[in-house]
Amino acid sequence: MKKTLLGATLMLGAALSAQADESRPFKFLLGAGLTFGGDTLVTVQFDDGHSEDVDGGGLVHLYAGAEYRLGTAVSLQATLGYHVDNSTGSNGSVRFSRMPVDLLAHYHVNDQVRLGAGVQFVNNPELKGSGDASDVNVKFDSATGTILEGEYLFSPSAGVKLRYVAEKFKLSGGGGAEADGNHFGIMLNYYF
């Protein structure tokens, strides 16, 4: 987790110091964010008495993709990511992981502010344990959710997003049992 936050901080610093060519309609992007929400999928108890929840909408989302600008007011964006929430102890760990594909359209209010909406596809999310938690092995069906977001661009190369994703995860073979994956997030983007 500390490495992820350090990487995000370094990425933001590089983004703020870099300059992108605004005349290019096609750009690549890298992003990282923290997300919060969703149902508690499992609570991990530690020997010292504290506990940690692994949530359906948490916690770290890393992604890469591309953006294409259509004229001055609209852009399209596609990303592939890795979204994970986990709890790790000396004797094992539990992790909820998924690989979301986001497809978004953005309306540019001005050069710094844009609003977006789109869809998120998640293929085979999984809750899995190791060590003393190796009996945790829950598979979910692939899911589709909706995304609403706003982005503020500090420069043509760097932006911060606030986003909301609405999605549900159904247990594979679970007779219709669902877990709420709805979450809010704050994301940092670097465009190049």
Approximate shape: elongated
Number of DSSP strands?
A: 13
* Cα end-to-end separation: 25 Å
- For this structure, the quaternary state is single chain
Mean pLDDT: 90
* Class computed from helices, strands and strand pairing: mainly beta
Strand fraction: over 45%
Radius of gyration: 18 Å
Strand arrangement, largest sheet? 1-4-5-6-7-9-10-13
Largest sheet: 8 strands, antiparallel, barrel
What is the helix tally? Answer: 1
Helical proportion, percent range: under 10%
| Helix and strand sequence | HEEEEEEEEEEEEE
Low-confidence stretches: 15-20
Task: Give an account of the 3D structure.
This protein has one helix at residues 2-17; strands at 26-36, 40-45, 51-55, 59-70, 74-89, 92-108, 113-131, 137-139, 143-155, 158-166, 168-170, 178-180, 183-191. The chain is mainly beta and 192 residues long. Strand 4 and strand 5 (74-89) form a beta hairpin. Residues 15-20 have low confidence and may be disordered.
Write a brief caption for the model.
This protein is mainly beta and 192 residues long. It has one helix spanning 2-17; strands spanning 26-36, 40-45, 51-55, 59-70, 74-89, 92-108, 113-131, 137-139, 143-155, 158-166, 168-170, 178-180, 183-191. The chain starts with a helix and ends with a strand.
Q: Which terms summarize this structure?
A:
192 residues; mainly beta; eight-stranded antiparallel beta barrel; two-stranded antiparallel sheet; 1 helix; 8% helix
Helices and strands in order, then pairings?
Layout lengths: L1 H16 L8 E11 L3 E6 L5 E5 L3 E12 L3 E16 L2 E17 L4 E19 L5 E3 L3 E13 L2 E9 L1 E3 L7 E3 L2 E9 L1
Antiparallel strand pairs: 1-4, 1-13, 2-3, 4-5, 5-6, 6-7, 7-8, 7-9, 9-10, 10-13, 11-12
